[in-house]
Design brief:
This protein is α+β, with helices and mostly antiparallel strands. The chain is built from 11 helices and 10 strands. Its cofactor is FAD.
């Protein structure tokens, strides 16, 4: 059965110490300023966070997926923006190249990405193609030895930082025999003519995370920038999202844990009617509910991560991991949203004030139910995994 090893817990302590020292003192200001701390990324790289699942030949630690989830949870406990920077940097930036890239592509891009000297992004979502990723409108055609890309992407994390080196984008490159769109993944280096990073979004939360729309107008890249085989992009991003759902679940666990800790502490020290508010069952029961949410979310998340690691060793099936990932993502993210509402309620009027962290927690939570597949999509995946009929 799955469990976190002593090495995992020792690693958790290291990441927590880093987060408390390098993130916690600054995050309130970064959040207010909508500032992406690019100077933090190399420090995360020095700690080995971006290279956790990468092979040693590219500077990585060749660790298990569970270790990555531990790191994401601990960063997310202090701040969700920094947690998603790591989650997207590895899951959407590094892993597609690591999994599907040629040896030449890996040698070109991975060393800097693994070291935290650069970031990569994955351009899937479009203004009119989110959950319906098969409706991709971005197109790429071969012109001699170059792909010519035209289209637009939306809500792309880590795509416009001053250290972003490459964005992998999905595009229609033809039609399949059944008439469906042939989707391929193509790597577009930052600064390529015809590739424009749109102004940063004004978001509800994740203010210290980098998020942009992207546009491509006759953007030309070498034919060798195709990631994997032509037409394999759809399968590639489905696999990428399956892994990403476990990572987002870990991010949600971190947020729920933060809510539990802050609400517990506040309930012990906030006085009303001459006694701590935690004396009142109306408060203590809510904090108890937070503890249950955290425990359940963490268990589901690390079960899914364990299954992912077991799959790597050939001991579990893709279907098992897919189902566990969807279950973990659905429960953990909805629990995190509920946890921020409860924590804010425990803080009362202070919870509505930006000087208290629960206000930031509340703003940051909602996207967890949307990104990497909405809650509705997770329910659809789970239902299919149960063998329920589809239309």
């Amino acid at each position: 059965m799955f469990e976190l090893s002593k090495d995992h817990e020792d690693f958790r302590a290291v990441v927590r110490e880093f987060a408390e020292a390098e993130v916690a003192p600054h995050i309130a200001q970064w959040d207010r300023d909508h500032y992406f701390p690019s100077e933090l990324v190399p420090k995360m790289g020095e700690l080995g966070l971006f290279g956790l699942v990468a092979p040693e030949e590219f500077g990585g630690a060749d660790a298990d997926f569970t270790s990555l989830c531990v790191a994401i949870e601990e960063l997310g406990r202090v701040d969700q923006s920094i947690g998603i920077t790591l989650s997207a940097g590895v899951g959407l930036g590094i892993n597609p190249i690591l999994t599907y890239g040629s040896q030449e592509q890996k040698e070109r891009w991975l060393p800097d990405l693994v070291a935290g000297r650069a970031l990569a992004a994955f351009g899937l979502t479009e203004p009119e193609a989110g959950s319906d990723a098969g409706a991709t409108r971005t197109r790429a055609r071969l012109d001699g030895e170059e792909w010519v890309i035209s289209g637009a992407k939306a809500f792309i994390t880590n795509s416009g930082t001053d250290i972003t080196s490459v964005v992998t984008v999905t595009a229609r490159t033809g039609e399949n025999p059944d008439g469906s769109a042939q989707i391929s993944a193509i790597m577009v280096p930052s600064g390529t003519p015809g590739f424009t990073v749109e102004p940063a979004y004004d978001k509800l939360g994740w203010h210290a995370s980098d998020t942009h729309g992207l546009s491509f107008d006759g953007c030309r890249v070498p034919a060798g920038n195709l990631l994997g085989e032509q037409g394999s992009g759809f399968k590639q991003f489905l696999k990428t999202l399956d892994d990403g759902r476990i990572a987002i679940s870990a991010l949600a666990v971190g947020l729920a844990q933060a809510c539990l800790e802050t609400a517990t502490s506040y309930s012990k020290t906030r006085m009303a009617f001459g006694r701590p508010i935690g004396v009142n069952q109306g408060v203590s029961f809510q904090v108890a509910d937070l503890a249950v949410m955290v425990e359940a979310a963490r268990t589901l998340t690390y079960k899914a991560a364990w299954l992912k690691d077991e799959l790597h060793h050939g001991r579990r099936s893709v279907a098992e991991v897919k189902q566990a990932a969807a279950i973990a993502k659905l429960y953990s993210t909805e629990a995190a949203v509920s946890a921020t509402r409860i924590a804010t309620q425990v803080f009362g009027g202070n919870g509505f004030m930006e000087e208290f962290p629960v206000a930031r927690f509340y703003r940051d939570a909602k996207i967890l139910e949307i990104g990497e597949g909405t809650s509705e999509v997770q329910r659809m995946v789970i239902a299919r995994g149960l063998g329920l009929p589809t239309s």
